[in-house]
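Feature request disguised as a bug report, sorry. It would help if multi-protein outputs had a clear separator. Right now it looks like this:
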Amino acid sequence: MKGTGRGLAALFALVIASAAMADDKSAEKDILRVEAELLHAWETGDAATVRRDLDPSFTLVDSKGAITDYAANVAEVEKRDPAYTVFRNRDQAVRVYGDSAVVIGITRVEGTSGGANFTAEFRFTDTWVKRDGQWKLAASHASRLPE
C-alpha cells in the first residue's frame, strides 16, 4: 500500500502540472490576442482600445531612452503623429508567471511623423499584468535594430 500512496501523489502532481500548463497556454493566447488588438489600435488611431488595453500605470521606454506614460501614449494615438501604416509583431515568445507575463519579439513599423516617412524594426520586451480577469500592458521597452 505504501507504493500506492506515492503513485497517487505522483498522479496528482502530474494533473496539477498539466492544468498549469493548459492555463499558461490559454494566457499566452489571450496575451497575444490583446497585443494584436493594441498594434491594430496604434495603426488605426483607436484610442479607446489603447485606453482599455494599457494598464493605467503603463510606461514605455523607447529606443532613445525616453520614458512616456499612459496619458502620453493615449494622446499620441489620438493625435495620429506618428501615423502608422504598418505596426506588426513577429517572433514573439511569451512567458507566463501567474498573473503576470513577459513577451519578447520584434516590431516593424512604417508610417509618417512630422511629414517624414519612416520604417524601423525594434526588439521589444512587454510586461503584462492580469487585472480583474483582463490582461493589461503594464510596461514596454524597445531597442531599435540595425537596418
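(second protein starts here, but nothing in the output says so)
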Amino acid sequence: MLKEIPKPLTILDIGGTVDFWKAMNFNEPDVRIILLNLEETPNVSAPFVSVKGDATNLKEFADQSVDIVFSNSVIEHLYTWENQQKMAKEVQRVGKYHFIQTPNYWFPIEPHWVFPFFQFFPKRIQYWLTQHFQLGHIPRKPNFEDARRQVDEIKLLSKREYAQLFPESILYMEKICRI
C-alpha cells in the first residue's frame, strides 16, 4: 500500500517500537516514522523519531499533518468506548490515511490471555483468572486491584463497533483458515 503514496512521507505509529519495524524488515527510503507512546523512547535514530503523547489527544499534530497514522493493537487498550472514539477521531483528524489494526472481539481465543472465550466470561471470572494464573501475555496479578485494572484496560472491538469508529474506512479482515 505504501508504494502508491508519493514520497517522502511521514508515518505516525501510535504505540510503535523500533523493534516492530525491524521485525517487519521495513526499509523504505524517504519514510520518516514518528513513534508515539506514553513515554518517549530514548536513543532512536533516523528514520525514527520518538514523541511522548496520548492516542486520545494528539494535540502535538495539526489536522492532516501526517501522511499515514498506523497503530498495531493499541485501540483495544484504552479502557472505554469513549476513549476508543477519541482515538479514532484523532487518527482521522491527523492522518491523510490510516491503518489501525486490532483483534476481533468475536475471535474464539482472546489474544492477550490466549484463552478460549475469555472475553465472554463475566468480569468477576476474568478478574479471578487474572489474579490466580499467568495466561498468555498477561502475567499473574496477585493483587485484586491490579487484576481488575488489567482486565478493564482491554476492550476488544467487534466489526460493527470498528465500522462505527471508522465509518469512511475500508475494513480488512484477517483470515486464519480459508475453506
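Even a blank line would do. Unrelated, but nice: The CA atoms of residues 6 and 67 lie 10 Å apart.
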